[in-house]
Amino acid sequence: MTERHSPLASGAATILLTGGAGYLGSHTCVALTQAGYQPVILDDFSNSDPVVLDRLEQLLGQPTPCVRGSTADTKLVADTLKQHKAAAVVHLAGFKAVGESVAEPLKYYANNLGGMLSLLQAMASTDCRTLVFSSSATVYGDPATVPITEDFPLSHTNPYGHSKLVCEDMLAALRHANPGWQTGVLRYFNPVGAHPSGLIGENPRGTPNNLMPLLAQVAAGLRPHLDIYGQDFATPDGTGVRDYIHVQDLAQGHVAALRALLAGQPSFTVNLGTGRGQSVLEMVKAFEVASGRSVPWRLAPRRQGDVASCFADTTLAERLLGWRATRALHEMCADAWRWQLSLSGQTQPTPIGRPGSRPP
Ligand code: WQD
Questions:
Q1: Collapsing DSSP states into helix, strand and coil, what is residue 132?
Q2: Ligand 1, residues 91, 98, 225: which to mutate, most atoms within 8 A of Cβ?
Q3: Which residue of 16, 69, 298, 312 pairs with 86 in a disulfide if CB–CB is 3.0 to 4.6 A?
Q4: 276's torsion region: left (phi>0), alpha (psi -120 to 50) or beta?
């Protein structure tokens, strides 16, 4: 276990942020810190790079304490919770690639379910019973209609989605057994984009699974074209429709959820989306405008498991958390493009404002 120390701001509520060096984790770390909390990162770097910690320090003007390890190490988690007197946990650590979960189900059940079980045991043993959990719109399976509300039927079409569903059920059983548990379950739609500084963003290993990093790589000339998986769906232009949400909005959603729980809000499950659906062809066009580059594409067969249309009804998160997504599609594409250019060394990242300054 290696820990990076930093003077924890006195009075700031300390939050254990699992997976805090990852794509959503790093953006949530910035948002939590700028909201006055003190995150302590727990990350095994199985799907993230320690260099993110240096980028976070550049952005925040101070190092974020980080413990290298897995949520599966119950003693490590318990010791960390005790040492830092954590007020709550934001649990983002987990594998999230649908296709990989179909090929390697045991890897997903072991990591996503085993990690959650061990985390909850560590939390119970240290009397830390406030949890924000990263779930996914994948738990809605193939919705009969859109937009999707939180009371829609739940189902799973792959081990990744199944692991999220089982984690949600574990939390429901825990709340039933002990009302002292407070949980905020956040069902993400499609996270995209990057911090406007270009210092942190999505950095998938190998071939990306998701549309946005692929658009960026085609625009950057790293791939010859995009394969569009089907143009015969029951959607306006025949291509798949999704609810793309800026990762900065998603990070703010975690702050709002944590703030609500710490203020005594009863446990909740909410959608975190924009409430708007965009097709693949609309995303191609938006990315070409944002990058000033062409994005050649060719039609390919449908991808197994893809649904036609999936986007959120966001009224519950607005009502319970006073949160809604504010960033538009062009910002998502522009920030993703800036990040792609900094990844490929074509532009220097520029920290926004003075380190540690509040967001504009
Ligand atoms: C979006 C659209 C594809 C790639 C997944 C997970 C979900 C969440 C987000 C974690 C679809 C089309 C894509 C390509 C394409 N992950 N597409 N060509 O599948 O909606 O959601 O990622 O929380 O849980 O299921 O996202 O970006 O893979 O696909 O045409 O090369 O783009 O068919 O319509 P998806 P995606």
A1: strand
A2: 98
A3: 16
A4: beta
State how far the Cα of 200 lies from the Cα of 314, in Å rounded to an integer.
27
Q: For residues 354 and 60, is the Cβ–Cβ distance under 8 A?
A: no
Q: What is the pTM of this model?
A: 0.94
Phi, psi (5° rounding) for residue 13? -65, 125
Distance 240 CA to ligand 1 centre (A): 9
Catalytic residue among 23, 37, 108, 160: 160
Atom of ligand 1 nearest to the CA of 306: 33
Q: What is the pLDDT along the chain (360 residues), one digit of tens a residue?
A: 556 655 454 568 999 999 999 999 999 999 999 999 999 999 999 999 999 999 999 999 999 999 999 999 999 999 999 999 999 999 999 999 888 999 999 999 999 999 999 999 999 999 999 999 999 999 999 999 999 999 999 999 899 999 999 999 999 999 999 999 999 999 999 999 999 999 999 987 788 989 999 999 999 999 999 999 999 999 999 999 999 999 999 999 999 999 999 999 999 999 999 999 999 999 999 999 999 999 999 999 999 889 999 999 999 999 999 999 999 999 999 999 999 999 987 765 655 554 444 343
Q: Which of 54, 69, 87 is nearest to 3 (CA)?
A: 69
Residues paired with residue 132 on neighbouring β-strands, in sequence order:
90, 184
Domains and CATH numbers, the chain: 12-191+245-272 (3.40.50.720)
Closest ligand 1 atom to residue 191 Cα is 9
| Closest C-alpha among 33, 56, 165 to residue 109 | 165
Q: Which residues have C-beta atoms less than 6 Å from ligand 1?
A: 96, 98, 136, 138, 188, 190, 209-211, 214, 226-229, 240, 242, 280, 303, 306
For residue 188, indicate whether it is catalytic: no
345 dihedral zone (left: phi>0; alpha: psi -120 to 50; beta)? left
